[in-house]
Amino acid sequence: MAEWSPNNRACKTTWFTLFVLNQHQEAFPDAGELKMKDLTFYSRTADADLRKTMARDLAIAMDNNFRLIRGADFEKSVQPGGAIQDMVDVLLDEDKTMTELAAVNDANYRFLGEKSDEI
Amino acid sequence: MKFRYLVLLLSVLQSPGFIVGAEPTNTPTISLSEAVPVTNAASTRRSILEDPATVNRAVRDLFADDNPLRKLFDVANIKFNVFDSDKPGKQSSLGFSYNFSKDISPYYISKEKAKHDALALSLSARGEVAFNQAANPRNFLDTKASFLGFRSRGGALATTTDVQVQLNALEDQAAQSKTREDFLKNPATVEAARIIRSHLSTQYYVELAADGGIESNQTFSKKQYIYGGHMAIDIKGWNPESPWARFNLFDYPFAATRLLLGNDTEWSPRGSALPTVLVGIDQVMPTGNNPRALAGDTSDFARLRFEASYRTLVGHIKGQAAFFEADVRYYQELSLLPTSQLDFFSLIR
C-alpha cells in the first residue's frame, strides 16, 4: 500500500495538478483518501464508453501538466501509452484513491526534485 | 478453499430461511429453516436483501488482496445487488452486476509532448444478473470490443526550469494547509494555481472507433449482434481566461452557486465543465423474440446513438462536495420507412 506523504513529490504533484484541473478542492492531508468517484470528471450516470473517454482525456491533461509545466519525465523504459493507461485504469475504478493514483504516477514519472526513495 | 466458502455463502444466502449468525446444530435431520423461527429467518433474509453492501464487504474481507478470486472481483467490478421484479407477486432477489473494461496499452504514433496520437484496443463487458430469473432486470448484458484511434491537441504550454522549481516550492507551502478553507486561501495555493493556469490551454480530444459485440438478455433468449463505429469529442478549456471558460453557459448556474457558497472568490465559470459527446452508428442483427420480431420484422437495421454527459461542482455543502450531473442518451433506428413507436428511445438522467 502506497503512503500518502507530504515528502513525496508524486503525491503532491498529483494532488495539485488535479486541483488546478478542477477535479477537487481538498487540502493535502485529506486528499489521499479521496476516491475517483469523488473527482469532478467521474460521471456516475454516463455510459462506460463515455466515462472512459473522459478518463483518457483527464489522464492526457495530467501527463501534459507533469511533463510540460512541472518538468517531469518518464522513468526509464516507461512509454507514454503505458503511463497514461495506468492512470486511466485507476481513474475508472470508482473506489481507488488519490494515493493509488499517485503511486502509479510515482512509478511512471520522474518528477522534478524527486528523491530516489519515494514510494 | 476460500472459493468453496464463497460458494457456500452464496448458496446459503439463496436458501429460504437462512439466518445470519445462526448457531450450528447437532441435529442433522433438522434443516435451518426448521431450526429457526420462520419469522426470524424471513426478517433476516429480508435485511440481507435490503443491505447487499454487507455481502460485498464480506466478500472483500474473505479474500486477501492478492487472491485470484478477489482480483477477478476487482477487475470485473463484480458487486452483489438486490433486484426487484416488476412482475406482480414476485419477490426481490439477490444478484450481481459486473463491469469489466480494459484497454490494451495504446500504441503512440506521436512522440512529441502535448501531441497524443495513438491506437488502442478496448474490451468491455457489463451487465446485471439476478439469481432468481424472474427478477432479472430488463437491461441487456453488453459485451464489446473496440479498435480505436484517438488524438489530443493542446492543454498545456511549456514552462522554464526556474518556473518549475518555483512551483515545487509553492506546492510545498500549499501542502501544509490542514483544511480546505485554509488551502484555498493560502497565498502559495493562489500563486501556484495562477502560474499553472496561465500555462494551460484548450485541449481538443477526438476518438474514432470501430466497435463489435453482442447484447443479450440474461438467459440469452433475446440477443443481437452489433457492429459499427463511434466518434467521441471532449473539449476542455482548462485556462480560466479562455472563451470556452468565460462563455460556458452550461456552467453559469453553478459558477453562481460556487460563488454563493464561498468555493470561488470570484465569478469563475469553468471551461473544464463542457459536455462530452459521443455519436455512433451501429448495424444491429437481432435474433430471438425481440419486440421487432413480434411485430413481424426480423431484418437487420441501422441504429444511431447519441450521448452527452456533463458534471460540475455545485459547491461544498456541510463539508461535502455536491455535484450536478446530467446524461442524455438517444437511440434512433435509421430507416426510410415511416416511423413507428419502436424506432427510437431516449433517456435523460
Q: What features would you describe in this structure?
A:
- The complex is a heterodimer of chains A (119) and B (349).
- Chain A is mainly α and 119 residues long.
- Chain A has a domain at 36-110.
- Chain A is 51% helix and 3% strand.
- Chain A has helices at residues 9-20, 28-31, 48-69, 80-91, 98-108, and strands at 73-74, 109-110.
- A two-stranded antiparallel ribbon of chain A has the order 1-2.
- In chain A, α3 (48-69) crosses α4 and α4 (80-91) runs antiparallel to α5 (98-108).
- Chain A is globular.
- Chain A starts with 8 loop residues before the first helix and ends in a 9-residue tail after the last strand.
- In chain B, a hairpin with a 2-residue loop joins β9 and β10.
- Residues 1-39 of chain B have low confidence and may be disordered.
- Chain B has helices spanning 2-14, 32-35, 38-50, 52-62, 68-75, 161-174, 180-185, 187-198, 243-246, 252-260, 291-294, and strands at 79-84, 92-103, 107-108, 115-130, 141-153, 202-216, 222-237, 276-288, 301-317, 320-334, 344-348.
- Chain B has three domains: 1-75, no CATH class; 102-152 and 205-349, no CATH class; 158-199.
- Classes of the chains: A mainly alpha (119), B alpha+beta (349).
- The interface between A and B is large, with 58 and 79 residues.
Mean of residue pLDDT values of chain B? 81
> Could you give the distance between the termini of chain A?
9 Å
Judged by helices, strands and strand pairing, the structural class of chain A is: mainly alpha
Give the terminus-to-terminus CA distance of chain B: 43 Å
Number of self-contained structural domains of chain B: 3
Helix % of chain A is 40-55%
Q: What is the general shape of chain A? A: globular
Q: How many helical elements of chain A?
A: 5
Major sheet description of chain B: 11 strands, antiparallel
The helix content of chain B is: 25-40%
Please count the beta strands of chain A (DSSP E, at least 2 residues each): 2
Largest sheet of chain A: 2 strands, antiparallel
Strand content of chain B: 35-45%
> What's the pLDDT, averaged over the residues of chain A?
92
Biggest sheet, spatial arrangement of strands of chain A: 1-2
Rg over C-alpha atoms of chain B, rounded to the nearest angstrom: 26 Å
Number of strands of chain B: 11
Secondary structure tally, helices of chain B = 11
